[in-house]
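To: structure subgroup
Subject: Chain for Friday's discussion

All,

I'm putting the inputs and outputs inline so they're searchable in the archive.
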Amino acid sequence: MQDEVDRLVEAWNTERPDLDVRPLQVLSRVSRLARHLDRARRAVFVAHELEGWEFDVLTALRRAGAPYQLSPGALLRATLVTSGTMTNRIDRLAAAGLVERHPDPADKRGVLVRLTEAGMTRVDAAFADLLAREHLILDGLTAAERETLSGLLRKLLIPFDTPERP
């Protein structure tokens, strides 16, 4: 059984036998899989009338647990965007009725962003549909294979996810 990456590697081995193209066997597959996952995610977001960034903010609030609220700073850290971008996103989500701003009782100048009932309903439905599609993507693997793959991908990602130390 061959996939597109096998054909790509074979062609490069023929054309450039002087190069070690073995990284393509892993990373080209990861890249292609990421594109398929991105398509599945976009389809779910469209079906639930969400943009990817809206899903990111709403899921950050949902994961926070009751009362499903975070400071704008915590949302910045969770979604890796600038403060100006986050302010714009919160404004847009509030205008859509998916979040509300509330005064922060611990900081008179601060606010907390809270998921509304409509936001909760929308993000829960979108997340359930996303997981169903992701299960389909992984259907070709046994539980043990999924666990092995997860561990190997974690090993590759840890250096990127570890904050740099001065």
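Points worth raising on Friday:
The beta strands are 69-70, 99-104, 107-115.
The first strand starts at residue 69 and ends at 70.

D.
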